[in-house]
Design goal:
Layout lengths: L2 E5 L5 E6 L5 E8 L13 H8 L9 H9 L4 E6 L4 E8 L3 H13 L5 H19 L2 H13 L13 H6 L2 H11 L5 E7 L3 H11 L19 E6 L4 E9 L8 H12 L5 H9 L3 E10 L4 E10 L3 H15 L5 H18 L3 H15 L5 H10 L2 H11 L4 E7 L7 H8 L5
Parallel strand pairs: 2-6, 7-11
Antiparallel strand pairs: 1-2, 3-5, 3-6, 4-5, 8-10, 8-11, 9-10
Helix pairs in contact: 1-7, 3-8, 9-12, 9-15, 10-11, 11-16, 12-14
């Protein structure tokens, strides 16, 4: 393992992952703060902050930030998830110091200009409206809210338009002061990097983050249920979900393998039976969503309203079968796919940078590729059957968008699926 870790005096964890053959470096700051850390009233503020961080500092305008990066041939960006926010850049190896200085500047010295805040609110509201106008995006917002009602994990990452309109500069500054604390931050760099050099820069640049603890989110409570949104569109968007498992659950690898066998590849059972054999869908797949203290198992299908009556019992049949048997060939193929994904991701400095930062936030340590491969190999057919039975015994979340008036009532769908639905 090439990664090295140092904890700065203020508590920020710094990881470097040296790839000496690379000519570039991917680096950034990951913050343990996202939609999960928000209340109903400030839902969406993490995402707004991510946008506003690039809009100027006490020493740079937003144009200066873009030009300074692009003049060196680099790129800089950010993302907000339910559990973290990341600010990252990719540069040639000799320009890592510039990227670090800019990231430190936008996070420690932002000015949040009122005029830029007004513009960015409009941009984000357009983003929210675009999601609403995109059926295969919006159905997931409906689904998430029904699975975790009146909880941070159930709220949209971008927030609601009325929230975004109301946020002030003071609101953003208060959120930063509360959430952006050194103990909940990880700086990660991967590529052609020298650990001692990165640490020296980090000690000089990342000096203003407060050294204090913060209140962490409460454990989400999965509920489930039925939600439908009528739209006059040709394709019916369906999402089925079940109570899943968190990252640190011992069944993590078995759940991933189960998802691959059930519906996360073109050789999967659902794809072959429902798309290839029956032609009921254009797209269908299954995948787990993992969080630090919760999880979900998701099945998505895009179909016609006329095909739903056949599709839902077919999905229920595959769910039941995955709790009954796994063939040796399926198990071996799923393991090979999972191991290949891990190993291929190691060829990308950006993937390694992101992976290392998120593992440190979640586990407070790094997982080696050897450790992950060993855990994958150790998964038995019995482990897969056990986690399938555990997940599919929970209440189901059923979300539908399209011509939903043509769907059966919830009780009839529950019978077709052969699982619980409240």
């Amino acid at each position: 393992m090439t990664a090295e870790i140092t904890v700065l005096d203020n508590g920020i964890r710094v990881i470097t992952d040296n790839m000496p053959q690379a000519e570039s470096v991917a680096l950034g700051m990951w913050v343990n703060a996202g939609a999960q850390n928000e209340s109903k009233e400030n839902n969406g503020i993490s995402h707004l902050l991510e946008h506003m961080a690039f809009k100027g500092t006490t020493t740079r305008t937003f144009k200066d930030i873009d030009e300074e990066i692009e003049n060196l041939g680099g790129s800089i960006n950010a993302y907000t998830s339910r559990e973290e926010t990341a600010y990252y850049a990719r540069m040639l190896k000799e320009n890592a110091d510039t990227a670090m200085d800019i990231i430190g500047d936008i996070l420690q010295n932002p000015t949040f200009p009122d005029e830029e805040l007004k513009k960015e609110k409009t941009v984000i509201i357009q983003e929210i409206n675009q999601s609403y106008d995109t059926p295969d995006d919006y159905v997931f917002d409906l689904y998430q809210e029904k699975a975790f009602p009146n909880q941070p994990l159930g709220r949209p990452i971008a927030g609601l338009a009325e929230n975004v309109k109301a946020f002030t500069r003071d609101d953003i500054q208060s959120y930063v002061a509360e959430q952006y604390v050194a103990s909940q931050m990880v700086f990660s760099a991967a590529g052609n990097v020298n650990h001692d050099q990165i640490i020296g820069l980090a000690e000089k640049i990342f000096t203003k983050f407060p050294k204090k603890d913060k209140k962490l989110p409460v454990t989400p409570v999965y509920k489930g249920g039925d939600v439908r949104c009528e739209r006059d569109i040709e394709q019916l968007q369906l999402v089925l979900g079940f109570n899943g498992i968190p990252y640190n659950d011992e069944a993590y690898y078995a759940a991933n393998i189960m998802a691959i066998i059930l519906g996360n590849s073109t050789t999967s059972r659902m794809y072959q039976e429902i798309r290839e054999k029956r032609g009921l869908v254009y797209n269908i797949w299954s995948y787990p969503s993992f969080y630090r203290n919760a999880g979900m198992f998701n099945i998505y299908a895009g179909t016609s309203a006329e095909s739903a009556d056949e599709l839902i019992p077919a999905v229920g049949g595959e769910i039941r079968k995955i709790t009954e048997y796994i063939t040796p060939q399926e198990l071996a193929r799923a393991k090979a796919q999972m191991k290949a994904n891990i190993l291929m991701s190691l060829e990308s400095s950006s993937s390694r940078c992101d992976k290392n930062a998120r593992q440190m936030l979640i586990f407070n340590r790094l997982l080696t590729s050897e450790e992950m491969r060993e855990k994958i190999e150790a998964v038995s057919a019995g482990d897969v059957l056990q986690v399938a039975a555990r997940i599919f015994s929970s209440e189901v979340t059923f979300a539908a968008l399209g011509r939903v008036k043509e769907l059966k009532e919830p009780e009839a769908i529950r019978k077709d699926l052969g699982v619980s639905l409240t």
